[in-house]
Amino acid sequence: MAFDYDLFVIGAGSGGVRAARLAAMTGAKVAVAEEYRAGGTCVVRGCIPKKYMVYASEFGRSLPHMKGYGWSVENVAYDHNLFMDKMHREIDRLSGIYARNLRNAGAELIDDRAEFVDAHTLKLVKSGRTVTAAKILIAVGGRPSMPSDVEGVELAITSNEMFHLDTLPEHIVIVGGGYIAVEFAGIMSGLGSRVCLIYRGDTVLRGFDEDVRTHIHEELKRKGVKVITNATPKSISKKDGKLLMQLSNGESVTADKVLYAIGREPLTSGLGLDKAGVKINDQGAVIVDEYSRTNVQHIFAVGDVTDRVNLTPVAIREGQAFAQTEFMDRPTTFDHAEIPHAVFAQPPAGVVGMTEADARKAFGKIDIYKTKFRPMKDMLTGDEERVMMKIVVRAEDDRVVGVHIVGPDAPEIIQAVAIAVKMGATKADFDRTCALHPSIAEELVTLREKYIPPELKPV
Fold first, then answer.
1. Is residue 334 included in any domain, yes or no?
2. Are 278 and 351 found together in one domain?
3. 437 is catalytic
4. 135-164, pLDDT tens digit by residue?
5. What is d(CA 153, CA 45) in angstroms, rounded to the nearest whole number?
6. Which of 80, 171, 298, 437 is labelled catalytic?
């Protein structure tokens, strides 16, 4: 059977674009269908614009600190529309680069939604055209989750809309306790909004190390975010021009905006996967093997739609491994262990490897090294913010299996530390590395005393 394309990619996000470019550069005939904008969630309404919003909010928080260093700044004002205009100009530029790089590699970019007709055939929804492909890669990513059991939830917004706010809300309620909720709590508080965070658990950032969770939770409150835990919304309604939210604990809160940030889900609905025979799990994620192959031999999936590790660099590496395997005769898999990741809270967290709890379950005997301290920069500002650093070590062979940092530049530090952890560095390797002074990161190579929990210390 003659096909229109050697490879058809659904979705022009980071993973799909990397796979399409590499495949096209081998001479394969490749097309990519994107129903929104090239660049995907990360570039258009995720990591990149969010990081710009973090920067904007941090400038506001730094103004009081400037006095500690002799600076006097008068009549300071934040122009939200000016910032948003500049940010979206940059997003437009980056999206254009993604599109241009695809075309320069020889791939065709189709501005349309693609849905399966059968295992080799796709329908382009806007044009009505059908195309066939020898191999198909699903790289459609995910979308914000919204509850179906909360009355009036249609009055709330998701992270998608946060990047298009015309005006700053005076008061915003954020529902959720994951990294998106925590990051936007810091952003909106830093930009001047009153923020209330509502979380169903008792401490934010479920899945992270307990010391990281506790540290960031306390910093949220210290920076003025009202945190209501062990509660969920029951209803949202309009009252006197405001949004009124009733909570499961009997409390009620009012706000100008309500942001739901309770997680994300694979964007597989309506894709026609059943027509192609592609299996998904109970959460709607495409099921794949280590080579990103679905149960259908010629159909693959990478990135958030597979719900393995939902991070942009992971999607890129999965897309790259797919192209190397299928179009370069270089069978390649991506190792999902020891992936560094960050929470751009304020202060931010950078982590790699195992939590203390996971390490204890896996290895039994472990050693912990940790410290808290005020960073040098704050000694002249009066800010009581603390840095937290923690190293998790497997006792049997002294290998460092986890590093957790909360503090200024933690994401930048953890990227370099991740190299050492991935290589299997031991605590002795850390100890014999010379410190760079004065720096926050030097604490990682100067920790000598093992941490002993108070309940285990001799009386």
1. no
2. no
3. yes
4. 999 999 999 999 999 999 999 999 999 999
5. 21
6. 437
CA-based nearest residue to 337, from 257, 416, 423: 423
pTM for the predicted model, two decimal places: 0.95
| CATH number of residue 189's parent domain | 3.50.50.60
Total length of the chain:
459
- The answer to whether residues 348 and 449 belong to one domain is yes
Tally of domains in the chain: 3
Claim to verify: residue 14 and residue 119 sit in the same structural domain = yes
CB 175 within 8 A of CB 233: yes
Tell me the C-alpha distance between 417 and 429, whole Å: 12
Can you give the residue range of the structural domain that contains 162?
153-262
Give me the CATH number covering residue 401: 3.30.390.30
How many C-beta neighbours within 10 Å does residue 366 have? 20
Residue 376 phi, psi (nearest 5):
-55, -40
> What backbone phi and psi angles, to 5 degrees, belong to 312?
-55, -50
Q: In this predicted model, what pLDDT tens digit does every residue of 234-279 receive, in sequence order?
A: 999 998 999 999 999 999 999 999 999 999 999 999 999 999 999 9
Quick one: angle between helices 14-24 and 312-327, nearest 10?
Answer: 20
